[in-house]
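Journal club prep — side note

Before the paper discussion, L.F. wants everyone to see what a predicted structure for a comparable chain looks like in C-alpha cell form. Sequence:
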Amino acid sequence: MAKSKKAYVARDPSALGRMVVVWLYLRIASSAVSLFTDLFQFQALSRFPADTPVSMTETLPGMETADLATGLSSLLLLVTLLVSGFLTLKWIYRVTMNSQTLASDLRVSPPWSIGWFFVPFANLYKPFQAISDAWAVSLSPESWRARDTPSLLRWWWGLWLVASFLDNASFRLQLRTHQVSDAMISAGLDAVSDALWIPLCLVLIRVVRRLGAQQAEMLRTTAFS
C-alpha cells in the first residue's frame, strides 16, 4: 500500500519572522563585541614570543583581562547563537511547511529542511534548496520551477558556508593549540568569522522579511481565491 503524504496546515510566518529578526540583531551585536575582544586578544598575545607555550587551563602573565573579556563575549555569543539559531530553524520549518500547502513536488520536506543541516556534505546545498523552493513558491505556486534563484539567497548561503568553515577551522585549531602562534591564528580566524557574521545576519534579516512578506501575501491570496 502506498504511503500517504502528510497533510500540512499553513501558518502565517510574520510573527515568528519578527522574533527571528530581533534575535539576529542581537546576534550582530554579540558578534561586534566578540570581534573587539578577538582583536584585543590578538594584540595581547602579540607581546609574547611566537613559541611561548600556552594551555587552555592556564593564563599567561598579563592576559587576565583579555582572557576574561574573551570568555564573557564568548558566553554572550553562545546565547545569541543558540536562540537565534533555534528560531531561524523554526522559521525555516514554517516557511517550507507553508510551501507544501501551496505547491507540490518540492525537493525538500519540512522536517528535512532542518535535518539536512546536520548531515555532512548534504548540508552544503540541501537547506539552500529548501529555502530556494519556498521563495519560488511564494511568488508563483503554479510555476515555481521556472523561477530563478535570486542573488539575495545566493549571498546568504555563500556567507553562511564561509562563516561556518571559519568557525569549524578555528574550533579545530583551538583543540590543538600549544603555543602563542597557534593562539594568534585562532584569534585571527575568530575575528574574521565574527566580522563575517555581521553581513551574514543582515542578509538573512532581509531574506526573512522578504520571504515572510511574500508568503503571507500568497497565503492570503489563496485563502480568498
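L.F.'s comment for the group: The mean pLDDT is 92. Keep this in mind when we get to the figures.
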